[in-house]
Each structure stands twice: as C-alpha cells, then as structure tokens.
From TrEMBL:
This is Toxin-antitoxin system YwqK family antitoxin. InterPro entries: MORN_2. It comes from the Bacteria. It holds the Pfam family MORN_2.
Length: 196
C-alpha cells in the first residue's frame, strides 16, 4: 500500500511539473508572437544589435522584395529583436545568393554564398559569432581563392589565399601562435609584384 501511495505521489508530481512547463511555454509564445511581414508595410529600426518593427522588439520573419514587387530579395528572422535562424538572400532570377544562420543574435553554423548560376562562392563556419573551422572562397572562374582555418576566431594551421589569376597571395601556417611561410606582403608591398 505504501508503495502504491509513493507511485501515485510521483505520478502526480510529474503531471504538475509537466503541465507547469507547458504553461510557461505557452505564456512565452503569447508574449512573443511570431509574425511574417513585408518591410514596406511597417516601420523598422535597428539599434545596438536589436531589431524593432513599429517600435517593438520584433519576433518573426521580415522580407524585402526587389523593386518589381514580385521577386524576394531577402528574408530575415528575429526572436525578441535578435537575429535568429536562417537568413536568405536571392538574385532577381530567384536563385539563392547566400544563406546565413544566427542564434541569439550571433552568427552560428555554416554560411554559404552562391554565384548567380548556382555554383558555390564561399563557405564559412561560425560558432558563437567567431570563425570556426575551414573557410573557403572561389572566383567567378571557379578557382579556389581562399582556404583558411580558424579556431575560436583565430587563424590556425594552413592559410592560403590566391589572386583571381591563380598567383599565390599568401601561403603560411600558424603553429603555436607563430606564422611560417609567405605572408604576401613585404613593407606593405606585395612580394609577387617586386622586381628582383
């Protein structure tokens, strides 16, 4: 009998805690309704990293159209005035130009840019608004022009940058906080442009 009473108390306590957490979630959603609005129909302001619509911290999706009024230029998401979720930008031909992600106002995750024909223009990774991992970029001709590595926003390991024509601009390694290799400049003059 005592065991059944303990089980009944445990189940009752679980139900109370569960229903309380559900009420808190619903209350939070009531306080911050998510909207979808066209920027031309509202008054917007950004101040100190906080985005406002009609004077209130914005939660939802806001989008911009090209001047033709038909094609979407960009789509941004906010939660309580801070950048949140996926941000997209489009070319006039409805092709994706770039996708960026945010969490609590900071860049987070993979950011990708595209050329108008759909080829990748850049790929970078962020963690807590700092570069993290490999960052690459390509020229219009499809040539790799940037291959750099980061940890907590600081360069680490192999760092390679090329001009659009394929000539090396910089090629060095960061090891134990020190640079080794071709930095690409000498007395503020590009090494490859010097006459020997």
């Amino acid at each position: 009998m005592e065991r059944q009473v303990l089980q009944l108390i445990s189940i009752s306590l679980f139900i109370v805690v569960f229903s309380f957490s559900c009420e808190q979630k619903q209350e939070k959603e009531k306080v911050l309704p998510l909207e979808t609005v066209l920027v031309d129909t509202v008054k917007v302001k950004s101040s100190k990293g906080v985005f406002y619509v009609n004077g209130k911290r914005f939660s939802g999706t806001i989008y911009w159209n090209y001047p033709n009024g038909l094609d979407t230029l960009r789509v941004r998401r906010y939660y309580d005035g801070l950048k949140e979720g996926t941000w997209s930008r489009y070319y006039p031909n409805k092709m994706l130009e770039e996708v960026r992600t945010y969490k609590e106002g900071k860049k987070e995750g993979t950011q990708v840019g595209y050329f108008p024909d759909g080829r990748t223009r850049f790929i970078t990774h962020f963690k807590n608004d700092l570069y993290e991992g490999n960052a690459q970029a390509w020229s219009v001709a499809g040539r790799l022009i940037r291959n750099q590595n980061y940890h907590e926003g600081q360069e680490t390991g192999v760092q390679q940058v090329w001009y659009d024509n394929g000539k090396v601009k910089a090629n060095y390694v960061i090891k134990d906080g020190r640079r080794f290799g071709l930095l690409g400049t000498k007395n503020c003059i590009n090494v490859s442009d010097e006459t020997f």
